[in-house]
Amino acid sequence: MQLNLLNCHRVTDGGVAAIAAGCPNLRALDLYACDKVTDQGVAAIREGCPRLAKLDLGRCYQVTDASLHAIGARPGVNVWAWGSWGRCR
Fold first, then answer.
1. What pLDDT shows up at residue 82?
2. Pairwise CA distance, residues 56 & 33, whole Å
């Protein structure tokens, strides 16, 4: 299962948490430019989507490098964060 929310600027951590809670078989999630998503949303994905293999967080400027490291440390997960360089906190 995959979900593309590219450029959905109104998606928040609450929406991402709902997706994570309801889609445990999610394999790919594109959150490119979902600029309201933060580390809290990434934590919900990490916990609720154990089968996730691809996550695009490019231009998610509120997601810090700590979240990128945490989710990227899971075996088999490819995290894309193009466009975020220079803005990670």
1. 67
2. 9
